């Protein structure tokens, strides 16, 4: 499966209904609150819609008759209406603000969980910076839309519909004339929204690229300085930054493009009301009060419309972000657990049956590999750089699935094991050990079920009994030595020691060491070998090494090159193969 995220998403614009359906999954759990907020929205709209009608009545009946008592009473009623509307609109805003924050929280959790469930291939194919940008920036835009815009959006729609109803029912012809400019707007909006969304998508993508660039720069800072490449990266950064700037400006222009058009339509609406309304009054078909309320309704139709235009772009931004986020959410791990099968009784702990493997978009790295590794034996994989040793080991621990063929672990297809079972059976010390920030103690206990509740003193005792004490002595403060993020402050050899202890203490059935001793001095290396020799008899060891002295004691040596994994037979033969790259065994 190809896991690379594209962001070349659909250019077509969605209807309001499709949009709501699309974001609905985010809101399902907020149904009650949304319903409550919506009822506040409706109340507020109704209150503000009633006011102009009352004003019209007050003008025509009391002001024109100079009945000041009536004016006062109506004035008080209208004031009460506005005050109530103020209260309800406070609650609607507050409720939606909370909804927005919760949506953001849930969305980030969902993405993070999804990321945790995706296979290694996904992380090979995507840049961390872009992923972080999706988790931070894109979710933020979505939440902003929910917390600020959704309420306004709906209240604007209600106000508009309500005003339109009042306009048409007060005087159908005049109402229709007032609304005509809005129809023109509808068409213009429809035409422009796809373009606006596209602009925003490009801008979000550029922001992701910027974030990737920053991340690569910071990660590789030392190399950049050592090779004096700062100028090069400065230039590259300023290019990416300029690109981001241009896309942001583009998006900004797109986002405000509708506003003036809407202003114009609103003015036309008012002009129509005045011209047509006055002509109606002069032919005795209309009253001054009605004209004033008509103006008010025309306003409360076009103002929300203008707001909707602004909100529409905020919606397009949110949708563009939602596309980028849902691209991650829709990915499925293509390393599923398959149905359990009966276990074959066998002495082999690991078996490759006709295994082929290629990396996505890469050439084939393994061709028809057949292997049989027996319980308790020590195997070595040797071969030239780039020959496929790490790849073979990755298939053994199911970091990837073979393109063809089967990997069998303890008599069952490796795909039938849950991630937990698999991790219990196989310990893999990676070529590039990965540590987490914390202490040596934390890192050793990482994912260790057996000792997870142990105190430092208790773990020390275990370490002593397993003969690992010497290794811990290589750290200034022993188990309590602090490790910074990424393990920058300890040596590579020390990292390998921690990875080694971590793997050994989990007592796996198969222990894979990928160049695990490449950066360790010969004395410590000897120590590791003694520890390996003392592991339970049934532990199968697979050692990948360039230094041949490390594999002297192997029961079997495999030579890995050009897609083949073949038995070397003897140490002497392995050396010959390495020297001549000879594939004929
Ligand atoms: N994540 C990856 N994506 C695509 N191709 C890869 C990836 N990792 C390795 N390869 C390719 O697979 C081939 C085998 O790589 P592998 O890491 O298995 O070699 P190796 O024998 O472990 O080498 P070394 O001795 O340097 O550790 C190489 O040609 C490499 O280019
Ligand atoms: Mg390797």
UniProtKB/TrEMBL annotation:
It comes from the Bacteria. InterPro entries: AAA+_ATPase, ABC1_TM_dom, ABC1_TM_sf, ABC_transporter-like_ATP-bd, ABC_transporter-like_CS, P-loop_NTPase, Type_1_exporter. One of its GO terms (cellular component) is plasma membrane. The chain crosses the membrane at residues 33-59, 71-91, 150-170, 176-196. Residues 350-583 form the ABC transporter domain. It is found in: Cell membrane. Pfam families: ABC_membrane, ABC_tran. Keywords: ATP-binding, Membrane, Nucleotide-binding, Transmembrane, Transmembrane helix. Residues 35-317 form the ABC transmembrane type-1 domain. GO terms for molecular function: ABC-type oligopeptide transporter activity; ATP binding; ATP hydrolysis activity. This is Multidrug ABC transporter. It comes from Candidatus Uhrbacteria bacterium CG_4_9_14_3_um_filter_41_35.
